[in-house]
Amino acid sequence: MKNFANETLIKTAKVLRKNMTDAEKKLWQGLRGEQFGVKFRRQYPYQHFVLDFVCLEKCLVIEVDGGQHAEAEVYDMHRTEVLKKAGFTVLRFWNNQVLNETSTVMEEIWRHINQEETKED
């Protein structure tokens, strides 16, 4: 899976990594360091998008959406379709889910990773 991100997008991703939302920071604490047995990357430039979190090994994208995404529903649907065509599975969570239901969100991610592993066996 080739990544064709341009230099501007790479710079944008670096800025986003330094300015993560509270929800992104909280989710990152649970994803970093291969706690699920796989490596996640944060604010990863891919094609013309910056993915909130991605596990390239599992082709899994995790997006954390704030209130601005309520107005960007059509764009988000397009983005999800592009990522699916590239072979990714996309999981979306609202900021308040990550902040208030962290264990439920982490369980869903864990379940998805394990479900994918049993398909491979």
Notes on the protein architecture:
With 121 residues, the chain is an alpha+beta fold. The chain has a single domain (7-120), classed as VSR Endonuclease (Endonuclease, Chain A), CATH 3.40.960. Helix content is 50%, strand content 21%. Strands 1-2-3-4 form a four-stranded mixed β-sheet, sandwiched between helices.
List the topology elements.
Layout: H1 7-18, H2 22-31, E1 41-46, E2 49-55, E3 60-65, H3 73-85, E4 89-94, H4 95-100, H5 102-120
Parallel strand pairs: 3-4
Antiparallel strand pairs: 1-2, 2-3
Concise account of the structure shown:
With 121 residues, the protein is α+β, with helices and mostly antiparallel strands. The chain has helices at 7-18, 22-31, 73-85, 95-100, 102-120; strands spanning 41-46, 49-55, 60-65, 89-94. The mean pLDDT is 86.
Question: What distinguishing features does this structure have?
Answer:
single chain, 121 residues, alpha+beta, Endonuclease, Chain A, four-stranded mixed β-sheet, 5 helices, 4 strands, globular
Helix content, binned percent? 40-55%
* Low confidence ranges: none
CATH topology, which one?
Answer: Endonuclease, Chain A
CATH architecture: 3-Layer(aba) Sandwich
**Strand elements, count:** 4
Form type: globular
- Major β-sheet, in short? 4 strands, mixed
Amino-to-carboxy terminus distance = 22 Å
CATH class: Alpha Beta
Q: How many H/I helical runs?
A: 5
Structural class: alpha+beta
- As a whole number of angstroms, the C-alpha radius of gyration is 14 Å
Strand content: 15-25%
The overall average pLDDT, rounded, is 86
The total number of structural domains is 1
Question: Strands of the biggest beta sheet: in what spatial order?
Answer: 1-2-3-4
Task: Name the helix and strand elements from N-terminus to C-terminus, one letter apiece.
Answer: HHEEEHEHH
CATH-level-4 superfamily name: VSR Endonuclease
